[in-house]
Amino acid sequence: MFDTILVPVDENVISLRAVTTATKLAEQLAGHVILLHVIEPLPPYTSQVALQLPEGELEQAISEHGRKVLEGFSARVPDGVGHEVILWRGRQSIWREILQVATERNVDLVIIGTHGREGVARAFLGSVAERVARHAEVPVMLVR
């Protein structure tokens, strides 16, 4: 049914709730969890900052931060639940990257945390989770 569950994570409590939900479900269904952290493309204005740093240092620091985020969530996966981590360098919007990984890894379910913003906040900030839910070809579970 849900053999492979993709859980996009970022450094927040909502991601923790999504990971907890996914691991409980995987445990019950003998499934496999993929923890995904997408590194956003650097905005053009960061090139000026990057020029003042040794070559590649900014990208290295961002990647290291992503690995630490994944390590923290990976440590919370109970023994006996198969899982892996993916640090993915994005080239487009995060929600599109999540869907690309879901397709490439042939996942059965995406479990993603959402802030549950409404109205003006949602209109201005957008919602990665909402876009994933609208465009995914597999079921998506939103966790608050």
Question: Which terms summarize this structure?
Answer:
single chain; 144 residues; alpha/beta; Rossmann fold; 5 strands
Description of the structure:
- The chain has 144 residues and is an alpha/beta fold.
- The chain has one domain: Rossmann fold.
- It contains six helices and five strands; from the N terminus they run βαβααβαβααβ.
- The chain has a five-stranded parallel beta sheet with strand order 3-2-1-4-5, with helices on both faces.
- The chain is globular and about 50 Å long.
- The two termini are 23 Å apart.
Element layout with pairings:
Blueprint: E1 4-8, H1 13-29, E2 32-39, H2 46-51, H3 57-74, E3 82-89, H4 94-104, E4 109-113, H5 119-125, H6 128-135, E5 140-143
Parallel strand pairs: 1-2, 1-4, 2-3, 4-5
Helix pairs in contact: 4-6
What's the quick description here?
This protein has 144 residues and is of the alpha/beta class. It is built from six helices and five strands, in the order βαβααβαβααβ.
